[in-house]
Structure formats: C-alpha cells, structure tokens
C-alpha cells in the first residue's frame, strides 16, 4: 500500500531482503489516495479518504467518464510511487480484491505493463465463495492470461482470512490441487493494531507461516517461490 502510513518503513525493510517478492497492493477503497483529493473528487468522501461503499464507487467508475478518468489517474499515481521505491515489481493486486471490477482491471492492464507488471492475482479459490464471486474471479483470470500476465491457478486461504492457522495450513498443503497455487495469508506480530480487522488472528497466521514442520511439508513435492520465480 504505497499510500499507507508505514510505507516508507516497509520499503526500507524490503530493501534488506532482495529475495522477497514485493507487490503493489492498489488501494481504491478504505484508504487515502496518492493524488490530492481535489484531483479525484468522485472517488473520495468529505474527509478526503476513498469512499467505503464499494458498490456505489463501482457503479460510478463504470457509468461515469469523469470518475473513470480519475480512477486511471489515481492508479497511475500509485504505480509511480511504487516505481520510485526502486523495488522490483513482483506482482499486483488490489485491496478488497477490487481489481475483479472490469473497469478497474482495464485500468490496471492499460497502465501496469508500462511499470513492469507481469503478474497479478485472480482470487479463485476452489469450492469457496459465492457463485457470483467465483464467476468474476474466473473471468478476470482468463482476461489476465490473454493479456500475457502470470496468474496462479488458484488461491488457498481466502475463505480462512484471519484464521489460517497451523491446522488449516497443514490441511491446505496436503490437499493442493495441481498447478500454481498462491498461499493467501495475513501474518502480523499483534492481533490488534491501528487498522486491524476485528477478530482476525494475525499471530496464528504468522505462526503457521514460520512453522518449520509445515515448511518441510510445503517443500515436499512442491516448488516454493514468489511470482517472479514462476515467470518463464
């Protein structure tokens, strides 16, 4: 989140870990814009933050040319901020999976390749989520592949957001579907902090990721890596 309050700290830490695959997490809802709020008035509320009503905002950027122009400008500004970090762009996605919106996906595909975008998430999780969500995610996956993007075949952990603990991680790793799978998790050192989601067990998700036994299990018969590692 290049407009996040601790973005500079995150960039500094990432700079010490060259093998870490750092992606751009575009924020168009529940956050603050990269551009001055006066430049994107149709995307923000009276406080200058992005609108929290995704349905209303989604309709506006689909139906209103002015809102679409502001959307494109904001997305370009966030890509520009990421480029300024000097970090290689491993992948792209959007907060709240807002990139499944066809207009937002179009904007990202129009802008991202100029900044080195070669991989993107499609939130497809086998047997999880509602039919409509799976439909939009699958359509996005197909569209991204037609555009030459690397896209995992599926995600695991989306349905367990905030509760992807050791037991669930073990079950996931022992029942992976064939193909490329993105492990989707929200690790943190504390369960409650500014901006944390209510009820999320962030520490349990971190414990699952650093569990040595699970790491050995993941490496058995599988290849691990960031998005860039699978670009061929």
Mind explaining what this structure looks like?
InterPro entries: Glyco_hydro/deAcase_b/a-brl (IPR011330), Hopanoid_biosynth-assoc_HpnK (IPR017836), YdjC-like (IPR006879). One of its GO terms (molecular function) is metal ion binding. Its cofactor is Mg(2+). This is Hopanoid biosynthesis associated protein. With 232 residues, the protein is mainly α. It has 2 domains: 146 residues, Alpha-Beta Barrel (TIM Barrel); 69 residues, no CATH class. The strands form 2 sheets. A two-stranded parallel ribbon has the order 1-2. A two-stranded parallel sheet has the order 3-4. The protein is globular and about 50 Å long. The two termini are 27 Å apart.
Give the secondary structure arrangement, pairings included.
Layout: H1 7-14, E1 24-26, H2 54-63, H3 65-85, E2 92-94, H4 102-111, H5 131-146, E3 154-156, H6 166-173, E4 181-183, H7 202-210, H8 212-219
Parallel strand pairs: 1-2, 3-4
Helix pairs in contact: 2-3, 3-4
Order of helices and strands: HEHHEHHEHEHH
Estimate percent helicity.
25-40%
Q: List the domain count as a whole number.
A: 2
Structural class: mainly alpha
What's the overall geometry? Answer: globular
CATH architecture of the largest domain: Alpha-Beta Barrel
Detail the poorly predicted runs: none
Specify the CATH class of the largest domain: Alpha Beta
Identify the strand order in the major beta sheet. Answer: 1-2
Number of strands: 4
CATH fold topology of the largest domain: TIM Barrel
Q: pLDDT average, as an integer?
A: 93
Alpha carbon gap, first and last residue = 27 Å
The proportion of strand residues reads 5-15%
């Amino acid at each position: 989140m290049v407009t996040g309050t601790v973005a500079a700290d995150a960039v500094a830490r990432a700079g010490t870990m060259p093998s870490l695959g750092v992606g751009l997490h575009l924020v168009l809802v529940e956050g603050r814009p990269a551009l001055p709020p006066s430049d994107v008035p149709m995307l923000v509320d009276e406080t200058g933050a992005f609108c929290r009503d995704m349905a209303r905002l989604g309709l506006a950027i689909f139906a209103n040319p002015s809102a679409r122009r502001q959307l494109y400008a904001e997305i370009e500004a966030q890509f520009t901020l990421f480029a300024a970090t000097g970090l290689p762009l491993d992948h792209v996605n959007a907060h709240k999976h807002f990139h499944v919106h066809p207009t937002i996906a179009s904007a990202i595909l129009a802008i991202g390749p100029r900044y080195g975008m070669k991989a993107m998430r499609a939130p497809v999780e086998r047997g999880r989520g509602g039919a409509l969500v799976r439909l939009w995610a699958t359509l996005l996956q197909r569209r991204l592949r037609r555009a030459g993007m690397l896209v995992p075949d599926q995600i695991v952990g989306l349905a367990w957001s905030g509760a992807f603990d050791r037991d669930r991680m073990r079950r996931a790793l022992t029942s992976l579907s064939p193909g490329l799978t993105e492990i989707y998790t929200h690790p943190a050192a504390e369960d409650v902090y500014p901006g944390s989601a209510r009820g999320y067990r962030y520490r349990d998700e971190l414990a699952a990721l650093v569990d040595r036994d699970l790491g050995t299990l993941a490496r058995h018969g599988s290849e691990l890596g960031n998005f860039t590692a699978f670009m061929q």
